[in-house]
Amino acid sequence: MNDVLILGALILSAVFAGTVFSRLHIPRLIAYLVVGVVFAQIFKVELGHSLAELALGFIAFLVGGSLHLESIQSQRKVIFATAFGGVLGVIVAMVLILPLFASEWMGVSIFIVALLLGGLGTSTDPAAIEAVTQELGSHGDFVTTLKGVVAIDDAMGVIAFALILSWVGASSLGWTPLLGAVYEIAGGVLLGLVMAKFLVWAGSLFNQVTLVMPFVFAMILFVFGLSEWLELSMLLALMSLGFFAHLFARHHSFQGRHLFAPVRHFEEMILIVFFSLAGVAFVPEVLLEYGHWVLLYVMVRMLGKVGGVALFARYSGADLATQKWLGLSLLPQAGVAIGMALILKEVPGLENVAEVLLGLLVAGAVLNEILGPMILKWVLISKISKKS
Q1: CATH for 208
Q2: pLDDT, tens digit, for every residue of 91-117?
Q3: Residues 305-311: contacts with CB under 8 Å, at least 24 apart
């Protein structure tokens, strides 16, 4: 069977499975993941990651566009404090807990492995957050804080991971990892800002709404490709594109909602592609051989996220709901973490462990993508909506 036929069958199956899961009050994206895992095992296919990364780029654009500057400014202390708390909490939890179970792992010091897993575990998947909040139609201060944290904890996670690589003697982009991270993050944000200015200006020239859709799609593809070519953070570039486009459109005669409507019209399709292909990437053999480490990683990451966010939320003066439930809402994990894990293959001395760590991370990400959205949906329905 050819890849196009399998991809078509995969999407069709995901659509029907998503409908069934919705009627069972289970987040649809879990159905998309499960379908991807099943297809990978039945057809033994490896569909390319490029399509999944592209879908993640479109989702990043929407997440950035859903962030409103006024809301972020009013909660900036809480957002930055809790994002930092979540990143620090995961790293500290890994370093303190994993050495209790082993002294080394595949010939590498468990302390180094714990640091690496801590750095890889910091990021939150914006696609899962967007999917659940969009499905429920959730809004309000808690959701604004949640999306704000998701938007910046990837940047904090990349910096933390670069510092860890620097400590173990790695080098990225030919510079020190920290300088590489600064270039990747600052360059990504700057690229998004510049392209957003052009997007809003050029978008105002189109009198026909039908031309806006191909223009916006082309801009997203262009920024995606340019960020990859320049080795900048694709996620931050497209988040920035969405954020600044929404910001600039408010002060322009052109109505900014027309920039996001075309993408939002295809949002569910984008989510189906991303999560189904994430499921295809799952490797059951890793779960069978290193299952206890996968579960340990997922549990320690959860403990670090929840504990770190709660502690720093309290310090920042966040409301009680944010202190109690924000950490549990930040468990989904996917694209950025897997992208960082791929760098490990090029680190001297970690060639053997890198392959297993990548498999472990993908397995952990699938579990986090199943548990995380279910927990988030429970939090939004049972704990937050009752207070609003």
Answers
A1: 1.20.1530.20
A2: 999 999 999 998 888 777 888 889 889
A3: 305/86, 305/89, 305/90, 305/330, 305/331, 306/89, 307/89, 307/93, 308/85, 308/86, 308/87, 308/88, 308/89, 308/90, 308/92, 308/93, 309/82, 309/85, 309/86, 309/89, 309/149, 310/85, 311/85, 311/89
